[in-house]
Automatic annotation (TrEMBL):
Its main location: secreted. InterPro entries: FAD-bd_PCMH (IPR016166), FAD-bd_PCMH-like_sf (IPR036318), FAD-bd_PCMH_sub1 (IPR016167), FAD-bd_PCMH_sub2 (IPR016169), Oxid_FAD_bind_N (IPR006094). GO terms for molecular function: FAD binding; oxidoreductase activity. This is FAD-binding PCMH-type domain-containing protein. Its cofactor is FAD. It is found in: Secreted, Cell wall. Belongs to the oxygen-dependent FAD-linked oxidoreductase family. Residues 1-22 form the signal peptide. Residues 76-221 form the FAD-binding PCMH-type domain. It comes from Gossypium barbadense. Keywords: Cell wall, Disulfide bond, FAD, Flavoprotein, Glycoprotein, Nucleotide-binding, Oxidoreductase, Secreted, Signal.
Length: 221
């Protein structure tokens, strides 16, 4: 094969590869998605400040900051059409409802430790629901329980407990940057671990209902 033909062949393969991995979508659907969000979220905390599109200066850094799979740095890896950095639980609910309604896949990211990239990579047009702003931790020493939002990390939980008590702890892994959302909802390394025994109540949001409680979903017994 001559050099020019060979170069042409390589370029063709590259272009073909790039095109086949780019996820395209209808801008009309995207506009409808954006308009849908405020209609389904609590107005006391505007969702406008939580929406990042590629036009925002912080879009790329937000996308890359909590992504452990370096595939995101490849130009062939499709990026999300938007990132919803939820500031209120209702923003998560709005993202679920509106993504489903307008045909965008939803990827939920808490700590971003999924090495396969399930929380931030997709081959179809997708939206990331990023939970890192929702990280409140309320500890009740009387009942020895804690309410922890999905965006908190395991390290933040350990630290909060240590601030309240010298004798209490919550053994759930050695890595302190795991997101509570992905770790507690089933990502932890052992399904029968101490962690699974201790998580008793999770709240979830779906496209049909308001935020609902799931009792003892991950009890290891
Ligand atoms: C470096 C490293 C160290 C680890 N150490 C330990 C350890 O010590 N002990 C242990 O048991 N496990 C450990 N793990 C496994 C870890 O618990 C899982 O990878 C876990 O899923 C990470 O959760 P995340 O929120 O950080 O990740 P993410 O990438 O944000 O999420 C992981 C998965 O959960 C989904 N998800 C995230 N948040 C939510 C949410 N709010 N609602 C619904 N779905 C959600 C995502 O879509 C994705 O599918 C480790 C993993 C890594 C990479």
């Amino acid at each position: 094969m001559k050099a020019s033909s060979y170069t042409c062949f390589i370029v063709s393969i590259f272009v073909l590869f790039s095109i086949s991995s780019a996820a395209s979508y209808d801008p009309v659907d995207f506009d409808a998605f954006l308009q849908c969000l405020p209609q389904h979220s609590d107005h006391t905390v505007s969702i406008a400040g939580a929406i990042l599109t590629p036009n925002n200066a912080s879009f790329l850094s937000t996308y890359q900051l909590r992504a452990n799979n370096l595939r995101i740095l490849l130009s062939a890896t499709s990026r999300p059409v938007a990132i919803i950095t939820a500031l209120h639980p209702s923003h998560a609910q709005a993202a679920v409802i509106c993504a489903k309604r307008h045909g965008f896949q939803l990827r939920i990211r808490s700590g971003g430790h999924d090495y396969e990239g399930l929380s931030y990579i997709s081959d179809v047009p997708f939206v990331i629901l990023d939970m890192f702003n929702l990280k409140s931790i309320d500890i009740d020493m009387k009942t020895e329980t804690a309410w922890v939002q999905a965006g908190a990390t395991t390290g933040e939980l350990y630290y909060s407990i240590a601030q309240k008590s010298d004798v209490h702890g919550f053994p759930s892994g050695v890595c302190t940057t795991l997101g509570i959302g992905g770790h507690f909802s089933g990502g932890s390394s052992s399904r029968q671990s101490v962690l699974q025994d201790q998580v008793r109540l999770l709240q979830s949001s779906d496209s049909q209902t308001r935020v609902r409680d799931l009792m003892a979903s991950f009890d290891g017994h």
